[in-house]
Specification:
Blueprint lengths: L6 E5 L11 H9 L9 E9 L8 H12 L3 E2 L4 E5 L1
């Protein structure tokens, strides 16, 4: 991940799992070393539908937490956009 500038992740959850185009990324986040993302600045925006209340924002929340736990610096709190 780039250490110059900022990384903005926009994603949703699909029944509490990553959408197809984010599966490899989430798996990669699980595998990397704890401080590997030191120097990366990031923000996450989660998209979703509140009708799926039990899994609403699961993956955006997970990615936000994983990035921070791997050493990246959050420059904005996680945002959420939803269909009501």
């Amino acid at each position: 991940m780039p250490k110059d500038g900022a990384v903005i992740i926009i994603t949703s959850s699909y029944n509490g799992k990553p959408p197809r185009n984010a599966r490899k990324f989430v798996h990669w986040l699980d595998q990397i070393d704890e401080r590997e993302l030191t120097g990366v600045r990031f923000a996450v925006l989660g998209c979703g539908d509140r009708n799926w209340a039990s899994t609403y924002q699961d993956i955006p929340r997970l990615i936000d937490e994983k990035l921070a736990s791997k050493g990246a610096e959050r420059f904005s709190i996680r945002g959420s956009g939803c269909k009501r």
